[in-house]
From TrEMBL:
SMART domains: HTH_LUXR (SM00421). Residues 1-52 form the HTH luxR-type domain. Gene3D superfamilies: Winged helix-like DNA-binding domain superfamily/Winged helix DNA-binding domain. This is DNA-binding NarL/FixJ family response regulator. It comes from the Bacteria. SUPFAM superfamilies: C-terminal effector domain of the bipartite response regulators. It comes from Actinopolyspora biskrensis. PROSITE patterns: HTH_LUXR_1 (PS00622), HTH_LUXR_2 (PS50043). The keyword Disulfide bond does not apply. GO terms for molecular function: DNA binding.
Length: 55
């Protein structure tokens, strides 16, 4: 999911790709953000890239 965010996809586009609703995508990203300590999409992507989770 974070790779799709890094690719610049919207919640709606991510949902269509993963067969989820945009609301479910928003919920998952919110949980990911809490675990990473940020709610900012750009910071989530940056942290995931630095950790080598996404490219």
């Amino acid at each position: 999911m974070l790779q799709l965010v890094a690719d610049g996809r919207s919640n709606k586009e991510i949902g269509e790709t993963l067969n989820l609703s945009a609301l479910t995508v928003k919920s998952h990203l919110s949980r990911i953000g809490r675990k990473l300590g940020t709610g900012d999409r750009a910071q989530m992507v940056a942290l995931a890239m630095r950790a080598g989770v996404i490219r």
